[in-house]
Amino acid sequence: MFLRNQWYAAARGGEVGRSLLRRKILNEPIVMYRTLDGQVAAIEDRCCHRHVPLSIGKLVEDRVQCAYHGLEFDRRGCCVYAPGQEKLSANARVKAYVAVEKWQLVWLWMGDPERADESLIPDFSVTEQPGWAALGETLHLDCNYLLAIDNLLDLSHIAYVHARTIGTIDVARTPVQTVREGDAVIVSRWMQDVPPPPMFVKLGGFTGNIDRWQIARAAAPCYVWLDVGGAAVGTGALEGRRDHAFRRWNLNCITPETETSSHLFWTEVRNFGLDDPAVGESLRAQMALTLAEDAEVLAMQQQAILDNPDAPEIDISFDAGAIRFRRMIERKLAEQEAQAISART
């Protein structure tokens, strides 16, 4: 079960063009494309005639033509043409989704269209602020979205999974602070006078120990902001003075595809090497390597759960953030179910 009246990232802006992009979101097959005026359209990827996926068809101006019998659908999901037929049934339509392009991503409202509110799209405005540069990609994960959010809220794993890129043992040895702020869970880790990880040395030019921080903020249904960075020891970074620091924002939307697979839309935002394309490409390569390491572990974790779903497990102190987030999602799902039952009675 998934939360429905929410915005979910469905694609990066550059993925959607004048061709048909198929993507499954919350178990729903969707086809996306751009209209002639550049707007993003998203409709159900199923012809209402004989269920053939519309994504194997083609665009005819702003209409999707089914590859099987030539029926054409507009961005509202309405069938507006059927060969050899003048009158069309009012039922000749498929589901259409409210789509908004913002913060370099395409967002779909997966619930009641009448309740779609653009102000509820998560704030990724740092991607457009002066003094920062942003880049990002899409990664498919063979795991439930909550496993991926667990991964981002418990960064102690980077000491082991990512030893080649961003990990040092100081991460796993340092306790965290976990707090709840409204519908968000925040996990903070502060490391003082510690060796910099390989990525910090390569891109930040550090030669000695640093003060370092990791602050993860997760909000329903599936957004995670990571504020990470480092600065010379004793220069005030841990007290909030970070303008001079080597700093990155890692913005994540882990959109459920099915119960056992997800789409990760990640955006890396940095305050260094803004005018140097080589820095951006180096960071992209480092992130690709790091996330591939995560994806491998998460896929094996998901398969192990499927193989033995009743196996017992324990919690450790670093799980506090993930536990709070899952409880929040469970509460919201229960509220959603109660509202659905009330609407039916």
Kindly summarize this structure in a few lines.
The protein is an alpha+beta fold. Helices cover 23% and strands 32% of the residues.
Detailed description of the structure:
By secondary structure, the protein is α+β, with helices and mostly antiparallel strands. The protein contains 6 helices and 17 strands. The protein has helices spanning 145-153, 158-161, 169-173, 198-204, 277-307, 320-344, and strands at 7-12, 21-25, 28-34, 40-44, 58-60, 63-65, 72-73, 79-81, 98-102, 105-109, 133-141, 177-181, 184-194, 210-219, 223-232, 246-258, 261-270. A 7-stranded antiparallel β-sheet has the order 11-17-16-15-14-13-12. A 4-stranded antiparallel β-sheet has the order 5-6-7-8, with no helix packed on it. Helix 1 (145-153) packs antiparallel against helix 6 (320-344). The two termini are 21 Å apart. The mean pLDDT is 91.
What characteristics describe this protein?
globular; 345 residues; seven-stranded antiparallel β-sheet; alpha+beta; 23% helix; four-stranded antiparallel β-sheet
Fold blueprint:
Layout (H helix, E strand, L loop, with lengths): L6 E6 L8 E5 L2 E7 L5 E5 L13 E3 L2 E3 L6 E2 L5 E3 L16 E5 L2 E5 L23 E9 L3 H9 L4 H4 L7 H5 L3 E5 L2 E11 L3 H7 L5 E10 L3 E10 L13 E13 L2 E10 L6 H31 L12 H25 L1
Helix pairs in contact: 1-6
Q: How would a textbook summarize the main sheet?
A: 7 strands, antiparallel
Number of helices: 6
Strand content: 25-35%
What's the β-strand tally?
17
Low-confidence stretches: none
Element pattern in H and E: EEEEEEEEEEEHHHEEHEEEEHH
